[in-house]
Design brief:
Layout (H helix, E strand, L loop, with lengths): L1 H11 L7 H10 L11 H9 L3 E8 L5 E12 L5 E10 L1 H23 L5 E3 L5 E4 L2 H6 L19 H17 L15
Antiparallel strand pairs: 1-2, 2-3, 4-5
Amino acid sequence: NLHDILRAAAATGDFESFSYAEQQIWEICGADAWDESRVSASDRRVLEEGITHTWVQELTDASGAKVTFRVNKVPLRNQAGEVTCLVMTGEDISALAASQQELAGSRALLRTVLDAIPETVSLKDTNLRYQFVNHAVPVRMGLLPAELVGKTVDDLPLMTDAGKADSRAADEYVLKTGNATTVPLVKWTSMQ
């Protein structure tokens, strides 16, 4: 990428393999005098602190369409390690932003559908920790969803030891065989 090319140029001073545009960028960056009134706060931070600054910005193009850009401002250093200039790159990530928005909408819709189902629906990882529970699961247990996600049945205070063992055995069977199984009615300590 351009940042690596310019960093190599700073170290070696070899511009022969660069395009004309890359040489111009370096010549501009190499200027000793900065017009402080034209340096933005993010530019100043990159120059003074030597850190990369990245953000996403939504703009409107000439046709009125929304365009999403990821902007990177990267410090470049001389052989002594001093920041001498910065390079700014912009990448049109409109398609990625639209995909992320669509995925978030799909997840929200799926969550709404699963929460509307009166039966309990849960998802556990290979360590048997709840990764997802629909609305019916915590309601039946008398818990909040946050009290379940990330936990195993062994962490649940309301299950009897026999209920925990039955649930764990069924989960392990499914993971080991890849086959579905029926879980016995779980016994809750509050129902004893």
